[in-house]
Amino acid sequence: MSRTKRDSLSETIVPTAEDMHKLGHRLAEKAAPGMIAALSGSLGAGKTTLVKGVAEGLNISKTITSPSFTIIKEYYDGRMPLYHMDLYRIDNFEELYMIGFEELIYGEGLSIIEWSEKAEELIPCSAIEILIDILPDGSRNVKVDGLEL
Ligand SMILES: Nc1ncnc2c1ncn2[C@@H]1O[C@H](COP(=O)(O)OP(=O)(O)O)[C@@H](O)[C@H]1O
Ligand SMILES: [Mg+2]
Questions:
Q1: Where would you tag: which of 48, 50, 103, 145 has the fewest CB atoms within 10 A of its CB?
Q2: Which amino acid residue places its CA nearest to atom 11 of ligand 1?
Q3: Model-level pTM?
Q4: What is the mean pLDDT of residues 113-134?
Q5: Which helix (H) or strand (E) holds 86?
């Protein structure tokens, strides 16, 4: 996953949580079945906020909650399936196999993976990489590699 897709590497300042939602909408507009977005960034960076925007953009009516304890949540009532994963509590790859991580990421939906750095070896290099950094003024710097947002 370390290969940089430099032709579409971008960096954006996202001032507020509402703007992060809007970025999620844009990601949803560009999403295609089978697409994988690997999110990294510290606790509270805004990963789940981005996913909420994506879900809204896909017309998913259910409220997105953080899948920290369940690891994977699947939503099927939108324009395409959304697989929302949070690997924060994953200790080893076996757990991921058990919960069907690989079947899902090679499935027909959009996979968005929080704490994707925990499964780097399992994520194909075609995945879009999104890195969120919290800046001192509270805004977020969002680097996107692999898709123009
Ligand atoms: N520019 C911003 N982008 C995203 N979230 C922001 C921003 N500014 C403030 N926030 C707040 O930061 C928190 C981010 O939480 P969350 O999305 O759950 O982070 P993560 O999933 O990365 O742990 C939310 O409470 C959100 O309202
Ligand atoms: Mg989160």
A1: 103
A2: 17
A3: 0.94
A4: 94
A5: strand 82-86
